[in-house]
Design brief:
Blueprint (H helix, E strand, L loop, with lengths): L1 H34 L4 E16 L5 E15 L18 H5 L7 H29 L2 E2 L5 E4 L4 H5 L6 E5 L2 E2 L3 H9 L6 E7 L2 E7 L2 E6 L5 E6 L2 E3 L4 E2 L3 H28 L10 H14 L1 H19 L7 H14 L5 H29 L2 H9 L1
Antiparallel strand pairs: 1-2, 3-12, 4-11, 5-6, 5-7, 7-8, 9-10
Helix pairs in contact: 1-3, 1-7, 3-6, 3-8, 3-9, 6-8, 7-8
Amino acid sequence: MAIIDGLWHYAVPFIVVLTVLVFVHELGHYLMARRFGVRVEVFSFGMGPELFGRTDRHGTRWRLSLLPLGGYVKFFGDASAASTPRDDLPQMTPEEQAVSFHHKPLSQRAAIVVAGPAANFLFAVVVLAVLFATYGQPFTPADIGTVQAGSAAEAAGLRPGDVIVDIDGRAIERFEDVKAIVSMAPGQPLAVGVMRDNQRVTVTATPKPSTVTDRFGNSYQVGLLGIGRSGLDYRRYDPVTAVWRAVRETADLTTATLVGVGQMIRGERGTEDLGGPLRIAQMSGEVAQTGIVSLIWFLALLSINLGLINLFPVPLLDGGHLLFYGIEAVRGRPLGERAQEYGFRVGLALVLTLMVFATWNDLVHLRVVEFFRGLIS
């Protein structure tokens, strides 16, 4: 019974979330390819052997594969799901070249590749816009309700009743903006502009590094000022404003993700925060149980991360293809087959290494490693 409950509460939400996001991503590639007349041979949900599928009137095989992790589209002219070119490209007939991905102009190939990540960002905007127009966006006025004794805010001279208007030149509209900036800057001095008694005052506050644990049991190091908000509210918007707010929220989440990755690279943030499929499965299950609103937020966040990760200039990812196309644009001709082959091998090694590392973090986080250590000690 426990196994069935685990599958229902964690595996099923994880598969649903992953399937939706992969479908959106691959649909972006598919639609743009069709726009430019490229024949799409396969649209696969999952990886590995086909379980079942059907071929549509355009010759595309829509298939459900054995492993429900990821998915891909395979264009005419591809040798594999990674879009490596077939060896017989030069021998193709004019009719075949007209529908071959690798015979399309550079700009069209680049557009087809970009369309996947772009679809993920667009999906996040649409999802958030619907949420903001129906349920509302969290909106708490950026006025300080409380200041903790001994906190960074107290040391900086912030007071209850102060209204924060900007931090390091970034305009502040709501308390959530303050939290987003401060949490990503532990130990870093910030210029905080506030309105106090109808006068503008600027103070320097250094958020204290602190390890916090969220409701899913994940631990993170964040910056804390030690201030409390005066209340919590949700604002619903008309459709146009909701879309604009969703675009801003998507941009803010993208920036926060890039800042976090940069901090990891510079060694300012622990890599234990990097999660893999097991942690995503855990969080999918936990979020699904908290309600549809939380699940929608989680879906939007994962969609942004999926689009962003795929733009990293790593061969095998969409960003790696764009890197090769950039080199092709500069050189006036594509890289040689051997150079591309080595690039894809390096990219595969990097992706696999990252997956192994993230999965190890998941096992440590879920105390699986600790459990097995206890068995042999």
